[in-house]
Each structure stands twice: as structure tokens, then as C-alpha cells.
């Protein structure tokens, strides 16, 4: 049993260092098993049987604030509120930024060019002059700017201080605050300082506040863009439906549709809720859900999914799933969750960020002491510049954005390709796989097998098929539906049988009148002491066509008798071969794992270019095979249809479930391939590698600013070149580092995985159709 998960919105987290503190505070709560915070979405997911009040209290105790996310019956409202909140925040930041820069830029220009007017150092203050009075006014105005436009940094720093914390706000507040404090001392009491140190830095304080606000503004802008993948999915939700009630058609808001309502969809309209077609004949474009570009033919009895587009005919369908239960709603939920997840590389960044702020405070202090004691005159001024600059340039906000930004884009990218990443960790691991294990039926093949041959001992093939259908009508297995379909094609109606038993991976049995019927593979029947050698030739004929031979036998009063054999074969998916080739190109070993017999398995393996085949593997042993590879130090991805492959999917490093668009078998898998195609595996791997590369670039980008910036800011270049970085430049650089990271993460948006349909969904255009479905 898994513990319940609580989601919280987190407020007041300003830097990557906060993430660790909040996570630790949450983990310290008794009963919490897992706590993860996402800096990009400002939310946390907590696993454990603990009340939300306790969790919120824990976050408050760490110096931040938390609240339960606003949940509405309709997530559309949710989205609108969120958007509104973000807009207000965005506007405030823009105002703060304009104010600070509007004041800081002229002041800086005065500092740069004013000496020509004033005929001396324009930022120097001399006691008892008009200048001193003017500077006093400027000082007060700067203070107002700091309090008004930069108030959130100071409040954050104070809040952190009260909780014995130091955050990015601390660095900014201490940096700009000390620059202002020094300057105001210069203005009011210039005489206590040596001549050379009577320089003011008001413009630095204002500029830094302005530039950092600018960085935050840009961050919000790009963050808004990143959730486009989600927005696009949200936009798929139709708002109304034509509901037929009491023989009249009425247009109802989607929220009013109830299960079992009869709904009409005209050509060109979106399907309103998930349902089952009652009447009509049409093609439906499901590409938005499954990534499958070809419209799917729908007739009575087929399922339709909310958000897909009805193309040619009018359909009436019965609502089977509404609201949050539709496939679309579940996909949105999944993508949201995965976008907030944190692969382990992100945790590394968090732990670095957590020690970062205290370390920087130490470096700043050390630099200040060095400058004061050993630096050239004016020592106090130099000391101040160095310490302030170190504090400002070291803000690790870019570090905190590095991973979540890329994950967001990567997960969205994958969703566009019909690859649903359900665990964030899978996004990282998928790119590191060595072996891909494929299930045969339904994975490499279409999963829609058909009967190709029937042989009977006594010549009555019709009877063999009929008896087989009597058992198989109760089975869910794809082989079973092939037999039932073939029987109904021959107009034999299966009789009700009793005592149906599915022998997993072996066969099926049932009781019909006085006899027990057994249908399954040869090995299983021989274990039941039924000799199958009489049909050896027939069996060979079937396996030569890559078919699966299913032997039928009956037991009447201890009397065992072989009746016949049915050959069932499945089409190989048209693109399986190409997809496997893509995997080979990436250096992966591709393995087939199947319960089917060796000969049939080999025939298929050969056709698609599989490296190794493990046949006649019982479902319960599939997971063990995966572990065997893992013991050889291989990372294994398992692809299966998720029915009897569940244990293997769970034990693989990455489990890929083949979900057929609307009906997603998702529980035990890490990634669901909504398009049936194996190209999804290659897409997932390529997107994973691209995302990881992107994260690494981001981390490098974030760190390089700090690693190069901090020593330069501390004055490392001064002894050799006489260079000392100005605090304003540091403020600009640190905004730039966030912008670099975000821009780089957005570059990932342009990435295209190699499969034809991915390229299609990325541009939103109809593709030049490749010869899928040709077979
Ligand atoms: P796969 O690994 O290809 O998914 P399974 O493990 O489901 O195969 O089944 C393995 C073998 O067991 C089949 O090839 C077939 O011989 C036999 N079998 C399983 N289910 C049935 C069934 N419903 N009817 C007849 N044979 C079955
Ligand atoms: Mg299977």
C-alpha cells in the first residue's frame, strides 16, 4: 500500500537553497515518507499519512509559508485563478523593476559622465556643500526605492534570519543594504572617512534591485511559456455537448453531462466526454491524445475519447467517463505531476545550493577582512565593494531553475510525442538504458492476432474451432479474441461452458457438458499427459508462418484425447523494425521475452531484427529475466502491454507500458506509450538524453557564473590587473545567469526526436504519411 500524497503550494521560497530546507523540514515530520519540492512550480508533494495542517506548520516553522492548492471541481477555474495570481505578481515585479531602474540608471549615468559637469568626481561628497544636501535627498530616495521596490528581498531576508536561515534574499538584502548604509555614512559624516573613500554607491543599490527584479520578470515570462504543453491539453477540453435527453437535443455545459447521457458529435466537433459509440460511422482524429497521426475509424461499440476530433460523420455515443475521469483529464494530471517531479540530478543541485549561501557569506566576510587589512586605500570602500559584489553575484537562483525548467520542457516534449512520463526519475534513467526487453504479442506485433490454420485429428475443423471458442469466450487474452472472432465468422455460436480457468502463460480450460476442454501450448498439454505428436506436421506449418500453435484436447472420464490444433498469427506492427533499428543505432541491445514457443518467436525476432530471444518464459519468470540482466550491471527497459507483464515492468529500471490511446494500462509502468508504436521507446530515450544534456548545460551555466564570478568579485584579479568588479555588474550578471539557464531550457523545445510523427506534432502539421499499416 502506498501512503497518500499531499500537494502544497509553497510561498516565500526565493532560491534553490530554500528547496532543501523546506524538503528537510517536511521530511522531519513523523510519518512523512517522501517530500519533494519543485522550485519552478513552487509546489511540494509529500508522501505519508500526515494531515496537511501538520505539514503546513512544518513549512512555516522553517520560515516559509504553505497552503493547500486551490482545488475546484473544474480545473479550468483552478487555472484561471492561478493565472490571475501570477499576473498580479508579474505586474508588481515590472513596476518595481521600472522604479528601481528608472532611478538607478540616471544616477549611474551621473556617476559615469557627471564629473564633466561638476568638475571633479561626481560621486564624491564634501561636507557642508550644496552637494551634501543633494546627496542626502538622493540617499533618502534610494532608501525609499529599496523599501518599496526591493521590500520583498528585505522581508524575505528578515524572515529567514528569524528562522536562523540565510537565503538568496539574505545575499541581496545584505549586499544592497550595506552599500546604502556605507553611502549614507559618507553623505552625513564625510569627515570621518579618508578623502579617497568618500564615494557613494546609491546607484549600485538601486540598480541591483532593478536588475534582480528584471531577472524575476523574465523568469515568470518564460515559466508561463513552459506550461504550454499543459495549456494545449487544457484547451482540448470542449465546453459544451449536444446531449439527447427525452428525445430532444440540448446543448449543455460540459459540467452538466452525467454518465450514460447520450451525446451527439457532428463532423468537425470535438468529442465531449469519454464514451462508447451507439450509432454512426466516422473517422476520429486522436493525434492530440495518442500522437497517432492517422484518423481512426469508429463505429458502433468503439470507444471515443474526450478532446479528440470527429472528422467525417455524425456519431452518437453514451458517456462512460466524465470530468476528472476522462482519459484527457488523467493525461493532464499525469503530465502536471511529471513536470513537477525531480530526477536525481536535480537533487544534487539542491544539496549544493543548500550549502551555497552560508559558504558565500563566509567568502564575502573573508574578502572583506582581506581588503580591509591588506588592501590599498581606500580600504573601507574596497572592502565594501568586494563584499557586496560577492554577495550579489553568488545568488544561486539559476542553480535552482536548472533542473526543473528542463524537466518541464522535456516532459511536455515527450507528451507531444505521445510518450507519457509518469515518474520524473524515468526521464533521467531512460537515456541511460543498455538493454530494451520487448514483449512479443501486442508490443512488437499488433496484438490483434487472427486464426490462420485449423487442423483436426478427425477432419472436422469447424468443430475444433467451435470448441475452442466455447472456452476462449471467457478469456481476455488476445489469442482468445482471435479464436472467438474466427468462430463468429464461421457462424458458430459458442455454447456456454463452465469452470473456466486461465492457466497464465500456458493455456485455458473449461467444462463443456461431460468433458473438460483444454486449449494451450504443447508443453502444457504434454504436462497433462496429452500426446501432441500426431499433429507435429501441422504445428510446423503454423510456426513456419510465425504463428502460435494452440492445441485442443478433451478429457472425458479420465480419457484424454487430442482433437486438433489452431494456428493464430499476429501482424508485426509496420514500424517495429524501424523503431528497433533506431534503438540499435543508440547502442542498445534489444531482447524479446515471450511466453510463446521458440520457433514462432524466432520467426518474428528475425523479421524485426531482435538481438536475443527468450521464448516460453512463464509470466512469473519474466521479472526474473529482467533481474538477471540487472545483475550483469545493465540498465534495463521493459516494454509490455502491461497485462501479464506488470511484475516485469515494475522490476525494470524503466517500465514502458503500451497503452492504446484511451485505455491506458499505467499502474506499474514509469512511462506509457500512448501510440502503440515502439518508436515511442526510442523517442523517450532520445528526449531523455536531450533533457539530461540540457540539465547538465544548465547546471554548468549556473555554476560557471558563480565559480568565475565569485573570485573576480572578491578581487582575485585586482593584484594582477587592478580590476575590481562593480556591484552593478554583479547584479546584471546574476540576472543574466537565470536568463541563460531559462533560455537554454527553452532551447530543448526545439529538440526533435527521430520518429516521423514526433516531427509532425511538433510543427502541428499533417505529415507526409509513411507506410504504416501497410501490412
Ligand atoms: P506473451 O509473452 O506473448 O504475452 P503469454 O505469456 O500471455 O504470451 O502466453 C504464453 C503462451 O501461453 C501463449 O503463446 C499460448 O500458447 C498460451 N496461452 C496463454 N493464454 C492463452 C489462451 N487464452 N488461450 C490459449 N493459449 C494461451
Ligand atoms: Mg503479453
* Main sheet strand line-up: 14-26-25-24-15-22-23
Give the distance, in angstroms, between the N- and C-terminal Cα atoms: 44 Å
- Average pLDDT confidence is 83
Q: β content, as a range?
A: 15-25%
What is the second-level CATH architecture of the domain at 418-445 and 572-685? 3-Layer(aba) Sandwich
What is the CATH top level name of the domain at 418-445 and 572-685? Alpha Beta
Provide the low-confidence segments as ranges. 757-775
Q: Could you characterize what this model shows?
A:
- With about 775 residues, the chain is an alpha+beta fold.
- Among the domains are: about 60 residues, Alpha-Beta Plaits (2-Layer Sandwich), CATH 3.30.70.100; about 60 residues, Calcium-transporting ATPase, cytoplasmic transduction domain A, CATH 2.70.150; about 140 residues, HAD superfamily/HAD-like (Rossmann fold); about 120 residues, Calcium-transporting ATPase, cytoplasmic domain N.
- Helices cover about 50% and strands about 20% of the residues.
- It has 28 helices and 26 strands.
- The strands form five sheets. A seven-stranded mixed sheet has the order 14-26-25-24-15-22-23, sandwiched between helices. Strands 6-5-7-13-8-11 form a six-stranded antiparallel sheet, with no helix packed on it.
- Helix 3 packs antiparallel against helix 5, helix 8 packs parallel to helix 27 and helix 21 runs parallel beside helix 25.
- It is elongated, with a radius of gyration of 34 Å.
- The C terminus is likely disordered.
- The site of adenosine-5'-diphosphate has 22 residues, from helix 16, helix 18, strand 18, strand 19 and strand 20.
